[in-house]
Amino acid sequence: MSANHEDSESSQTAMTSKPSASSLPPPEKPNAIQTRFGVVAAFWAVILFLGFPIWWKTTSIYRAELPIQEMLDWAGGKSCRPVFPLEIRFDTPSLPDLEAQQLLRITQHTLDDLNEFSAHHLRLKLADEEAQQATEKADTALTVRLLAQDDLSSPRSLLDADTTTLDVFYPPSQIPPPSSSISPLSSYIAGELQRLFAEEKAIMAHILSNNAMGANVNTPQSPNSQAQQQISPQLAESITRRLRRSMKYAETYHLAFSLFTPGSAPSSWDIESAVQAYISPLVQVLSPISNFTIDTQVQLYASFSPTTPPPEYDETQQVWTLKEENLSAFINAAEWPLNPSIGSGPTINFILYVPAPSQSPLLVNEGKATSWIIPQWGGVFILNPPSIPTSESTKGNPPHLPANALTPAFLTFSHQLLSLLGTPQTPTSLPLRLQTLIRIRAATLLLSASSTMGSLARLTESLPSIPIPATVASSVSATLSHLSSACDSLRQGRFMAALASARVAETEAERSFFEKSMVGQMYFPDEHKVAVYLPLLGPIGVPLVLGLVKEIRRVVVGWKARRG
Amino acid sequence: MPVDRRKAAVFGGALALRLLLLLLFPSLPDLLTGRVEVSTPVTSFKRLQEGLFLYNRNASPYDGGVFHQAPLLLPIFSLLPNAQEYPFPTALFYSLVDLLNASALVTISDSAQAVSGRLYSSVRKQIKWDGVVVAAWFLFNPFTIATCLGRSTAVFTTTGILYALSAAVQGQNLNSMLALGFASYLSIYPALLFIPLVLLCYDRRAQRSNITPSTALFVVKHFAVFLLSIAGLLGISLLIIGDLFALISATYGFQLLVPDLTPNIGLWWYFFIEIFDSFRDFFLGVFWLHLTAYAGSLTVRLRRQPLFVVTSLLGIFAVFKPYPSISDASLYFALLPLYRHIFPLMRYTFFSVSALLYASLLGPAFYHLWIYAGSGNANFFYAITLVWSLGLSLVIADTIFAALRDEWEQENPDQRGRPVKQV
Amino acid sequence: MSPYFGLLRALPFLFFLFFAVRVSSEHTSNWAVLVATSRFWFNYRHLANVLSLYRTVKRLGIPDSQIILMLPDDMACNPRNAFPGTVYSNADRAVDLYGDNIEVDYRGYEVTVENFIRLLTDRLDEDVPRSKRLGSDAGSNVLVYMTGHGGDQFLKFQDAEEIGAWDLADAFGQMWEKKRYHELLFMIDTCQANTMYTHFYSPNIIATGSSELDQSSYSHHADNDVGVAVIDRWTYYVLEFLENRVTSANSKQTLGDLFDSYDETKIHSNPGVRWDLFPGGEQEGRLRTVVDFFGNVQSVEVEKTDADESGSLKEDLVELARLVEKWRTISQDYAAAGNDSLQQDNERAPSSYEVKRRNLGPVKLAEETPWEKRLIGLSILGACAAIWFTGSALTGSMT
After folding, report:
1. Which of A114, B287, B295, C80 is deepest in the core (most CB within 10 A)?
2. Which residue is closest to C117 within chain A, CA to CA?
3. Distance set, CA A300 to CA A272, A337, A380 (Å)
4. DSSP calls for C27-41
5. If residue A121 lies in a helix (H) or strand (E), which one and from where to where?
6. Does 3.40.50.1460 match the CATH number of domain C29-294?
7. Rounded to two decimals, what is the model's pTM?
């Protein structure tokens, strides 16, 4: 290609300068010189006016402007200090206003004294006070209903498991007198509240401290870390483990329910009604946190992998048992079709294993349990159905598992789902725990999106050859704006809104970091560039430059001749 | 009107030959349509049929990403019966287009612009083939026949270019611009011929009426006509397709950005397969610039022979286009016989002709070895396309050299016949 | 009242948790990225290397979904293979590595530098299936094994391109930034392999290679019936260690043991190990067990039905059962609380990150309407002809 270029080029120039080689060179005519000048100028015009802009445009790496400092601030925890002001409503139907307020004040005071972790604190409000502030209403975390009960010597409380209400029964005598600054009732209520939110507080402290430390080692100790020190190492350890067990956050989770059995029965189960009855409600209440899809499958003749230690027969209890340390090999990953290839997002596997009649009943741990959780993966439940006699006088599994047989399994799966999503284990009220989960998720997402921002900022600075397309910049700005709105919502105690913003922020942050076009040319040594440009510069550049030099020399000589 | 017997014989013979080939080898058209040497992604008849199918069913022909040709072809081809069931009418149509092209060539040749124009008259103008011979060279060129039977839509671009030239030499400047507009509308690159063509028109104009019009005004006027014709065609296309963005990106975007690297006889595909991705855009620019750079400089150098500039540019396009096929070479070879008078001045005729023959015989063989037999690899075929391009480039360089030599001899009559050395 | 009041009351169940769960190593999942980079029959041994490793990690429990296997060529179906459908890494041909259960994630020409880097950094198209993604996170131990032909600080991919040590280091750097691994074991068997990990800068990486700068890595032995070398030396001895000493997923063999087993007289080159990126350096790194990287961690948590503590399975079950009974009312209550704010956000959210892509919907093919189209065709032809002849007629007036 370039060879020909040179060829035609040089043949042209050669034609005009050729006579010098012949024995009788006729003088070059002025219009020949002009023509030659024209040819050289035409080539150079194309190169200068089209070639260089194209070179500049196509070989420069586009790097959109990113708010690096702002991103680093978010990652370093300088832009937002997540706080969790929980609003607790006091419902005092039997108390006069003044006394109620007095009780409230004292309780709040006691609570503040008790609280050692400033980011997470409880704010008490009277029920009727709340009606006045319609705007910027914070989510109510808990309603405390004070009920007088005459036959009590000391207060007692009852947490309603279905709603977010704590009923406190107290002897009417314990209402604090208006002047007092301490009362056993308020101490009791404060203690109860503190207990209810103890685990949440510990988890929050753990998440916040861990992240601030992990993301930015050089910053001075964040205020959260002092709270960390007050948590016993065992608690920290167990929280760490729990957090590690729970699934990584995803916009969508796929729940896969699988029935495995080593034989040919049971070959069907009432899965639809079971899912409808046990899983759907849970999915419904979890909907603010993530989306869920549900898939099911039945796999017959599912055998253990050859390396799995077989269950052992326990003579005393007449059961087959699996050793706890062997459970990790229970799933035959090579052969059981559990590969999570259902759309985007992680799959949570729930396995219902029906053992062969010859190995039934099958239990774990010397007959104490039938289910276990595999961290970040799913749960397993061993169902030992009542065996039915078959024609060959051997025991057999029923061919169909009706809905009532599935009840324990699916309740367990619901429980496992909650655990795998990181739901705390106290208090006993499920709605309260889900609210806690919302706060935990909001906090984790806020932190993870912030830390992604920091990673992206550092990446941008450390790899100068990586292109940054404009979409990344827009994703980053969307992330930052949602982060700050999430932070604001947290401060106002609107945790649902905070979670919603944090979810968007997380999605945008992930999108910006994993932008597809940011791979490009990561490392390109200079010798490669020479190899790329040499074929250009050699055959095309040399004649062009020589032509230009010749022309310039001619012009200069002519100019000098005219002057001299 | 007296019927020129020789002309009738040549044209009739050419038509008969094409139809005979079709009758004797009914599978030949489909075979040729599938060959990479004949059909490129932007001229393939197969792809046209796909577009036609969608178009006839009121879907956008560009859906599916197969069809990349100008939309005007669609309503025109919808006039013809389905080529799958009735191949004959389509073949006849293509043969007639070939004859049309040949008649344009006859006009060009008869105007004798190739040997003597306004500014220049060759000293060898007596060595010349007349129009019928030139037409015969075109019509019986195996490349032309293969293109015709392969039903490549490149023949319409050829028609546009040839009629632009024939109108220009006849002094029909307006038509010349319209035809060039048509050709450019079909496949962009003919727009680069505008500069030499408008000079040709200008020369003819100046030759006829002795008053020479202002060059700048003349060029601007004709450029406006050229643009208007393209705009008009695009307007009609827009009426047909409706979605301008889809239209532009599927046709011109496809031709300019070269996303389809199917092997062809050109140089682009292999290079762009191999180049580092980050440099793709840059080299896309370089390759296109390289193509355009010749238009200006050749025109400057050979200002006195604009028709020769057009011919040489067509040769250069046949080598350096993104999707070249043998139809481009056949167009170049169609115009070359106009320059019979400079053949004696060419120095590497034997070498270049044998390189071309070698490439055209071995090319299909190596392609077979690579794609079907699996016993060769891409380098086999690419090597052959290199030889082919080398052969063509040699012809181009050689003719340019010969033309320059011819000019030089005209300027220095005393030096005629002296051996020259290139320095 | 002690400030620990609340905590003390909360502790029992936490202690329960603590003791119920066996203390396991730090990481929570295992991923393996096994890459061969060379094509063609005479590179049989590279694919055998990688398939042997694949079998080993699978044997030690990493599921296929967490193994990314990249095979640039298909030796089993190569026409020159005298034993079609099989790949062996030993002349005794005892174990068919191909077997009937092998999941190749990237194969043939998909094995490119770009795809490899995209895999590591997860910069993949949205529609790339999960089986082709490295889904590791901050708790994952990742094993990266590469084999092919290399040189000083590069490894050739597919005879066409190469990955530089810098690229690899940057890819791991990005993985670390995005917390895509907890600890990473990098193994490479190629000529001058040790040069490949010299540029690494991210923490928590242990790297080992088969040969030093200016040293070749040699094949171990050839199978005369297969006709080519079937395995490389270093991989052979690593495998020997894994096969003979790491017999189960509970093996306590450490990385120190593995690296000590390198015998330069057998390997014919000097394998290298890089510890300095690992916190605690060599001392700490040597204590990592082999199955930390080659096996799959599954510290299962058994749920006992007889435990009474709060948050235990039993209590949860009761609660869930209650939830099931009353879920309708609850969900209404619950949804009402947060729906307002949530819905607003949901409505706003999609528009902000809507993918700007022209979606081609399905198009209905109408019946063929030839006459209409032909009319258009005719009129266009007519118009063109008219313009052409007008042009000829106007020629005279055009100056």
Report:
1. B295
2. A519
3. 19, 11, 16
4. --EEEEEEEE---SG
5. strand A120-126
6. yes
7. 0.72
| Residue A298 clears pLDDT 60, i.e. is over it | yes
Q: What is the model's pLDDT at position C340?
A: 44
Task: Say whether pLDDT at A150 is over 80.
Answer: no
Q: Are B340 and B128 in contact (CB under 8 A)?
A: yes
The residues in B 275-334 lying below 8 A from C, measured between CB atoms, are 277
| Torsional class of A172: left (φ above 0), alpha (ψ -120 to 50), beta (otherwise) | alpha
Query: In which element (H, E) is residue B102 found?
Result: helix B87-110
Is there a contact between C391 and B213 if contact means CB atoms under 8 Å apart? no
How far B267 CA lies from chain A's nearest CA (Å)?
A: 8
The dihedral sign for the CA sequence C116, C120, C126, C129: positive
- Give the HSE-up count for residue C246: Cα atoms under 13 Å, Cβ half-sphere: 28
Q: Is C139–A244 a contact, with Cβ atoms under 8 angstroms apart?
A: yes
**CA–CA separation, A338 and A326 (whole Å):** 19
Catalytic residue among C149, C182, C199, C384: C149
DSSP annotation string for C264-285: HHHHSS--EEE-TTSTTHHHHH
What is the C-alpha separation between C209 and C273, in angstroms, rounded? 7
The answer to whether the beta carbons of residues C205 and C278 sit under 8 Å apart is yes
CB of B139 within 8 A of CB of B98? yes
Q: What residue spans define the domains of chain B? A: 5-415
At how many degrees (to 10) do helices A2-17 and B378-411 cross? 10
Stretch B125-143: mean pLDDT: 91
Give the N- to C-terminal CA distance of chain A in Å, as an integer: 45
For C261-369, where are the alpha helices, taking DSSP H only? Answer: 264-267, 281-286, 291-294, 313-352
ipTM metric: 0.79
| Residue boundaries of the structural domains of chain C | 29-294
Q: Say if residues C88 and C230 touch (Cβ distance below 8 Å).
A: yes
Please tell me which residue, A171 or A524, carries the higher pLDDT value: A171
The CA distance from A5 to the nearest CA of chain C, in Å, is 29
CA distances to A310, A564, B45, B148 from B363, rounded to whole Å, are 66, 62, 21, 19
At B361, the amino acid letter reads L
H or E, element range at B381 = helix B378-411
- A381, A413 Cβ separation under 8 angstroms: yes
